[in-house]
Amino acid sequence: MVSRAERGPLAEWFWTIDRLFLVLFLALIGIGLMLSFAASPAVAHRIGLDNFHFVRRQIAFMLPAVAVMLGLSFLSPRQVRRAAIIMLVAALAMMLLALFFGAEVKGARRWVSIAGLSIQPSEFMKPAFVVVCAWLFAEQQRHQEIPGNLFAMILYGMVVALLIAQPDLGQTILTSVVWGSMFFMAGVPWIWITVLGGLGVGGFAVAYITLPHVAGRVDRFWTGEGDTFQVDTAREAIIRGDWFGRGPGEGVVKRIIPDAHTDFIFSVAAEEFGILFCMALVAIFGTIVVRGLTHAYREHDDFNRFAIAGLALQIGAQSMINVGVNLQLLPAKGMTLPLISYGGSSEIAICCTAGFLLALTRRRPESRAQERGSYRTLYQPAE
């Protein structure tokens, strides 16, 4: 335990970090590793790999991911902003390269290979995009002559264009929801919200008409006809798990669903550990979102407020999409469950999101001074 009397970067970090946030993120990482032992051996065996192939890779991803999260949590808000700008530029460049030189998987070009590692740059784009847009919105609030909102709209258009070109409709929807929420927080006129909402609906309609795989997934969701094997089996696994589960290793869904260790790991958890366990897992994500929004509400700095809210909503929205697909409440979409599903790019990128959140929510002397000043102003007797 670090004493309050100690001075130094580590002691200051320990006493200023949001320790509940830190515990929740570490808990999710630990649960993800546990569920990797439960879900991935059957998948590895089915495709001819060593049973613990994905488990070993999950551990290999987990160690640098935790290091990245803790390292980023030491940054100041200005350093977070600079790191996000560098990350966003690199991610957008790699997304562009992926369109021309990336490997095509299931009709999409979303990955680039660097030093033998397959990287999905759009995962790293998401937290950086949130932080940079928060900075642009804040600059508009601070200096009305700076067209920060316009720059944020242009940046959003660039990101969406790259995502659609891959194509990746799920990430497009997730990015749009988070960006729209931040835009709303920035106090834009209702006419802009109406226009952008209409464009969003129109864009989805165009995607449905022009992209066969989008139309197929939506039609299967509404009618239940066609190839619904994965979602039907996932729902059956949740039902079979009942309240307390069938026990570790006793699930059957992981033996037949191709994506049991990624998109449908929530169903594996439900079958083996029960609905109560899944409710606790959802509660962890809900606590992260609520705590993040609470921090944002108390913030005096516009950049911190927008960035904290956007990062927390990003984690919450992504987890909601994954769980919604498993429960057949949303059309099937390949979206990982943050820090739970297998995937190196996803885990490290979510830890970047967590690291940014931990850095921006640290208690700092200037923020405490502002709170004391606001308190004195509020309760100062009238002269």
In total, the number of domains comes to 1
Question: How far from one another are the termini?
Answer: 48 Å
Strand content: under 5%
DSSP summary, beta strand count: 3
**Main sheet specs:** 3 strands, antiparallel
Please work out how many helical segments DSSP would assign.
16
Query: Which regions are unreliable across 5 or more consecutive residues at pLDDT < 50?
Result: 367-383
User: What is the string of SSEs from the N terminus onward?
Assistant: HHHHEEEHHHHHHHHHHHH
Strand numbers in spatial order across the main sheet: 1-2-3
Rg to the nearest angstrom? 22 Å
Helix content: over 70%
Rounded average pLDDT? 86
Membrane topology: Multi-pass membrane protein
Keywords: Cell cycle, Cell division, Cell membrane, Cell shape, Cell wall biogenesis/degradation, Glycosyltransferase, Membrane, Peptidoglycan synthesis, Transferase, Transmembrane, Transmembrane helix
Subcellular location: Cell membrane
Protein name: Probable peptidoglycan glycosyltransferase FtsW
